[in-house]
Amino acid sequence: MKVNLQVKDRVAVIGAGLTLFRRRMLETPKELSALAVQQALDEAGLTLKDIDCVVLGTAPDAFDGMHFNGEYLADGAGATNKPMVRVYVGGGTGVMVPIAAWWHVASGHCDTVLAVSEEKMSPARPHPQYVFAYIWDPILERPLQPNLIWIFAMEMRRYMAKCGASKRDIAYVSVKNKKNALDHPSAQAAANITADDVLNSETLVWPVNRLDISPVSDGAAALVFASEKIARRMTDTRVWVEGTGWILDNTHWYNRELAYPRYVEQAARMAYRMAGVEKPSKEIDVVEPYDPFDYKELHHLEGLLIAPKCQAWRLANEGYFDRDGEVPSSPSGGLLGVGNPIAAAGTMKTAEIYWQLTYQAGARQVKKPVEKGVAQAWGDLMQVGTVIVMGV
Amino acid sequence: MGSFQTKSKVSKPQNPGGHGLKENELWQLSGLIEYRPRAKYDFSAGQALGIFLEKLKEGKIVGSRCPRCGRIYVPPRSYCEYCLVPTIEIVEVPDTGTVHTAVISYIRTTRERMEKPEIVGIIRLDVPGYSTNEYEFAGLFHRLCGVTPEDVISGNVIGMKVRAKWKPPEKRKGSILDIECFEPLPAYGNP
Q1: Using N-to-C axis directions, what is the helix angle for A148-163 and A167-180, rounded to 10°?
Q2: Which CATH number fits domain A11-125+215-391: 1.20.120.660, 3.40.47.10, 3.50.50.60, 3.40.50.720?
Q3: B chain contacts of residue A133, beta-carbon cutoff 8 Å
Q4: Chain A interface includes B24 (CB < 8 A)
Q5: Which pairing describes strands A53-57 and A84-87: parallel, antiparallel, or unpaired?
């Protein structure tokens, strides 16, 4: 089954912490990081001196408005005088940080690792959207004055055309996730809404309306990773990292089929192989796929091989992915409901799988028994898939 | 697993920290600093795109062919990203293709509403002998004209045959904007 001779140490998650996610926060990026770290350490029953290494994640420097944002954040994230590294793969960072924390322990180099993700999007004026202008190719794309939402709209339109989904079919995901988020203490955009509310919200770039999209957010998230020896000594509320996968496609999104994220499938296969998962649709009990837009959750459920190609929208509308459904998807409320402080959002999703598998999710706890879960993030120009499989 | 079940009364995260601010509360903070970076960039188009832009000036779309795997890249790259060998052969390709996807934008880069919505999309170019699978193709991101929002919403636009509408030669500058847009071929009822 699970064979990977390269892994020296089995790795556990033993604690998680989150700040509130809000449109604009009083706290600085360092202070947000510190709040998340303090909560994660408390939950793990550790203090900072017990931590060997730190992995940091934050998305484009331009949001916080600080170059070298990793080094800037480091002291707030508990990294002073410790081996620290920042990883970055756009929106995929939030799950890349736990993956990198895993390899620090799995390699035998560190016994305990803090994984910290932070994002403060609110400082950018006139709107954080403008900062996204700098991710486009300067020669081929910027002359057309694109808005970031264009690329999502193009992908969503292609998915609709190829898979026969309507805007209403897709809006179900936004309704589900915002409702799930009503039970999340950090949530910024929790709401009881209907598909009509989504369809009647402002059209930004057809087919994308305002309520198809997660909000602009500030926030931080942290996880504590430990080797098996430490994990068994410290706590019985632990989950094991069973598989990790990460794949980067190219930036040439206009040269690729947008209806299906092959890079997510490749990352998922890499993680499932390591975890010994042969039939993901049967073996995964709970899933947190990346949902910055509602269609993206469907896209990613297919890439994760949890739904057949072009079928995720159908299953979603049958309640298959509801909190009390066959495979609950985004029981946290996801980015659409809890919020989307970019790097912190994917780490929040990883934390949710930890809380679900340790039965600490309170009102968000899914109905079915859970032993294995998956968190996934996506990022860059339709490029990156980051996947982590966890089990009890 | 049974031992975990007993913990289900716990609800995490407990009291997540931090203080959310309303917009007016932000403006009232003492010590709020406003800062505008002063930066300007001049980007070189590089080897492959330099040729691509020069040829646009002549009203031609070109790609590059990998001598090892045969892939034709449009827009051209100076290296094959799968073989990482130089792609020295430049090939002219037709300025026609089909619409892969198209959307209607009501907002500008900066999020303000546009007076007149703009239709943009991906054009899958008619590149004969393109050697890879269905997933990858030679194509460009550009504006679409002569297409209505209704075409986009109904889905008529997907798969529509289109051709580059060029700026007059004297107005071309060696820019992706030397192509004004892609417009439907007459067979599709374009007036």
Answers
A1: 120
A2: 3.40.47.10
A3: 109
A4: no
A5: parallel
Contacts of A180 (CB under 8 A, 6+ apart): A323, A330, A331, A332, A333, A334, A337, A364
Q: What's the CA gap between B72 and B65, in Å, rounded? A: 4
pLDDT digits (tens, 9 = 90+) for B9-66: 689 999 999 999 999 999 999 989 998 888 899 999 999 999 999 999 999 999 999 9
Please list every residue in chain A whose beta carbon sits closer than 8 Å to the beta carbon of residue B61: none
Six-digit token pair at B42?
């001049």
Do residue B176 and residue A237 have CB atoms under 8 angstroms apart? no
Domain positions in chain B: 46-188
Q: Is residue B3 pLDDT above 80, yes or no?
A: no
The ranges of chain A with pLDDT < 50 are 1, 3
> Residues near B160 by Cβ (< 8 Å), separated by ≥ 6?
B98, B99, B147, B151, B184, B188
3-state secondary structure (DSSP) of residue A156: helix
**Residue reference for tokens 């179900």:** A172
